[in-house]
Amino acid sequence: MKSKRDLWSGRFRKRLDPEARAFSSSPEDAAIARHDIIGSIAHAMTLRRAGIISERESEEIVEALRSIYKEVSADAAEFLSGEEDVHMAVERRLTSMSPAGPKLHTARSRNDQIALDLRLYVRENSLRMMRGIISLQKALLRRASGERSTVLPGYTHLQHAQPVYLSHHLLAHFNRLERDFRRIASDMDRNCFSPLGACAIAGTSHGIDVRYSSSLLGFPRHFSNSIDATSDRDFVLDACYSNAVTALHLSSMAEEFILWSSAEFSFIDIPDELSTGSSIMPHKKNPDMAEHIRGLASRPISDLSGVATILHSLPLGYASDLQHVKRYLFDSFEVTSSLLSVASSFISSVRFNRERMREAASDPLSYSVEIVDQLVQSGMAFREAHELVGRAVLKSLDTGKALSDVLSQAGVRANVPSVPEESVEMRGSEGGSSLESIRKQMRRASSVVEREGRELGAAERRYERMVDTLLGK
């Protein structure tokens, strides 16, 4: 079978070595095939507006590209089979369908083309991440609402610290995800500009309107420096960083649930649908899905490191090194998306063992801070009160006497909580653990989810409208 002629082959006497072709090709480009075609449709319309191609030629090209979009949507991997990259695959197919096809690459380079493809990919998938975050936030909010007064130990250094409500703990995870959402939104705002028209590095002599192409693609801004526009991959780093932080948060949550599911804690029961057994020990029920979350969370972190390592010493201007950031970017989004999905299922279905949690939170020694606070409120200096209560705790441990008895024998007048709920309710400060504070946090969380939903919904509609308009829907 005769090999395909490279579309850039005019300068060369010999064809590219087959091994070199395989080594330098981009099979992962299937992930950005749709985005490449969307960008090409906008570019064709921009060429027509500039008078570089006729209206008839533009219509021919756009119609062919819309047909190719359907092919790619059906099976992008098959469409790209044997091609150097997505750009050459689309152009070759277009040229076979339309005599005007060879004109499409006027005033465009693969350098600004791939920069645009990746920006569109990041934009679309950032919206997907934000939707996944909201889904998990809603699951946490539902569970927190149902566990408002469920009490358990709060931990520092993985040691009993102070009793807290489970709702308070779940809302802490909610707040982490809120920051994740805002971080992605900030990335999108900062990086939302079109590089189309920057060409290879220095712009173009053709009179194209970059503001027009930016508008067609739904970008509020266009590039201001053509060298930077084709070199920049900060937006890839930003996306990978945001995904890595989200993955870190999910890994932390998974680790807690792994611990809580152990016999030593017995705080939760994981449903069968999210557990596995042992090939040799019939009694085992393992928290595998939580362990997979914890383990897979390393991937987005590695992806961030991979992108940074590629970029760390590159001079300005496009280099083929940049081709290799794609696989890290695609993996980062795919893994983080799956982590969010499984975490939502996990939170929604896990059963909390309220009695066991309360039992673990009922150690009077964990009420010591409330005793110190009472002494301070009666006029004692904090450090003096801390020392006094610390000595009482030590004596209680040495003698086995109740802390309240030790304090009473020492002549200390303090109300030692008799149940963990009393301890929790003493902490009514802003953002604290009392029920009144939890109610405020719940109201705030509900309004946050509503606001995020409106913001995301508007962004999704803008993106869908842009795509539908360019596809003629």
Automatic annotation (TrEMBL):
The biological pathway it contributes to is:
Amino-acid biosynthesis; L-arginine biosynthesis; L-arginine from L-ornithine and carbamoyl phosphate: step 3/3
The answer to whether the entry has keyword Amino-acid biosynthesis is yes
Matches recorded under PROSITE patterns: FUMARATE_LYASES
Look up the signal peptide feature and give its range: none
Chief subcellular location equals: cytoplasm
GO MF terms listed in the record are: argininosuccinate lyase activity
Q: Please give the GO cellular component terms listed in this UniProt entry.
A: cytosol
Keyword Magnesium annotated: no
Q: Which residues form the Argininosuccinate lyase C-terminal domain?
A: 370-406
User: What class does this enzyme belong to in the EC scheme?
Assistant: lyase
Looking at the record's lineage, which domain of life comes first?
Archaea
Matching Pfam families, A to Z? ASL_C2 (PF14698), Lyase_1 (PF00206)
By its UniProt entry, which InterPro entries does this protein fall under? Arg_succ_lyase_C (IPR029419), Argininosuccinate_lyase (IPR009049), Fumarase/histidase_N (IPR024083), Fumarate_lyase_CS (IPR020557), Fumarate_lyase_fam (IPR000362), Fumarate_lyase_N (IPR022761), L-Aspartase-like (IPR008948)
UniProt keywords (A-Z) are: Amino-acid biosynthesis, Arginine biosynthesis, Cytoplasm, Lyase
Q: What is this protein called?
A: Argininosuccinate lyase
The record lists the organism as Candidatus Sysuiplasma superficiale
